[in-house]
Amino acid sequence: MKLIINADDFGLTNAVTYGIYDAIKHGIVTSTTLMVNTKASILAANLTKEHSDLNVGLHFNLSLGKPLTNCRSLVDGNNNFIKPKVLKNDEQYLEEEIYQELVAQYQRYLELVGKKPTHVDSHLYVHQIFPKVNRQLIRFSEEYHLPVRGYSNKFFKETYFEKNFKVLQNDNYSSLLEKFKRLIEEDECYEIVELMAHPGFIDVDLLNISSYNQPRCLEYQVLKSNEAKEFLKLKEIELMSFKDVLGVKNG
């Protein structure tokens, strides 16, 4: 089995960004996705430019903060994106506004980083929850020739998406490590697996915007651990990134 471990939310806050960077440099995280309209976007972009070995995609954001375009159907009365759990469905979305915001975030990524992202996914599963977003993200991924999380397009095969590596109530280091091992063993039947992760450190900005804060430190611990590294070695799991997927064409 080939395994991509992707850290979401690169650029969310300074602490999250540095935690992801460290989990890549010293742990088993192989890939990350950058948010272009959040507080630490410039920090994340600078780290990407300074370290050419980082494999960085675009974390399309319709769920937090303000848009880059005039997209009234995507925001509330204060011009802020609405979290999917609050919105519940995508009836109010206009699909062309979704696409234009996606293109704008992609262009901002190019301005910040200076090169194309390796792939694209979305914050808070928005393209996996809402059909309108899904259609426009697939459209975008084909237009710009990029893999997209959890789906095939006319250029790239789907990689199996493992979303269950997360800290639940009463989890500790040992239980999260065992969960990591169990998920890998369950997914060995797939050729390529993307395991989503959210490692990071904590700062005030994170506490103000996300309830998933302390668990990021626990994920970080597991993904940097010698135990996790030795387990993957024992199972002969090949670590890779979406940069490698660019060579795996659909059909």
Structure described in brief:
By secondary structure, the protein is an alpha/beta fold.
Task: Set down the secondary structure blueprint.
Elements: E1 2-10, H1 14-26, E2 31-34, H2 41-50, E3 56-60, H3 84-87, H4 95-113, E4 120-122, H5 126-129, H6 131-143, E5 160-162, H7 173-186, E6 192-197, H8 204-209, H9 214-224, H10 226-234, E7 238-240, H11 242-245
Parallel strand pairs: 1-2, 1-6, 1-7, 2-3, 3-4, 5-6
Helix pairs in contact: 1-9, 4-6, 7-9
Task: Report what the structure shows.
- The chain is of the alpha/beta class and 251 residues long.
- 43% of the residues lie in helices and 13% in strands.
- It has helices at residues 14-26, 41-50, 84-87, 95-113, 126-129, 131-143, 173-186, 204-209, 214-224, 226-234, 242-245, and strands at residues 2-10, 31-34, 56-60, 120-122, 160-162, 192-197, 238-240.
- Strands 1, 2, 3, 4, 5, 6 and 7 form a 7-stranded parallel β-sheet that branches.
- The two termini are 20 Å apart.
How many strand segments? 7
Give the overall shape, derived from the CA principal axes. Answer: globular
Q: Span between N and C termini? A: 20 Å
Contiguous runs where pLDDT drops below 50 for at least 5 residues: none
Structural class: alpha/beta
Helicity level? 40-55%
Number of helices: 11
Largest sheet: 7 strands, parallel
Topology pattern, helix = H, strand = E: EHEHEHHEHHEHEHHHEH
Q: Taking all residues together, what is the mean pLDDT?
A: 96
